[in-house]
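Something for you to look into today, if you have time. Just paste the record in under my message, thanks.
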Amino acid sequence: MTDPEFLQIEQVVSDRGSRYAVSGGTVQGRAGCDAFIARLKQHRKYAKATHNSWACLLSDGGPVKNDDGESAAGAVILRMLERADLKDTIVVVTRWYGGVHLGGDRFAHVVTCVRAFLAEIGK
């Protein structure tokens, strides 16, 4: 798969009660990013997630990201998209908080999720 319209990979990582998933798809412009997030949150479990951190490297508008309360997660996702030279594809890492702070391990989990997405699309 090289051009995902909408891809979800559920339960990529579980750690101390927190669960992570990754979603992504092709978008056009910031409005496309907003529409993707809205579509994702139509699924109740994603709407109720603690964090839906995301990033996208837009060919017509540069980088955009949103940590959604998971400090610096959007920047981690964006760096990986830049390294993969993946434009006009939003990647969303969703976390359901399990009650235990993970510290820096949360960044490793974000990276694992983005890697799973990139591998799925052949990048």
Helices lie at 29-40, 44-47, 73-84, 105-120. The radius of gyration is 13 Å. The chain has one domain: 7-120.
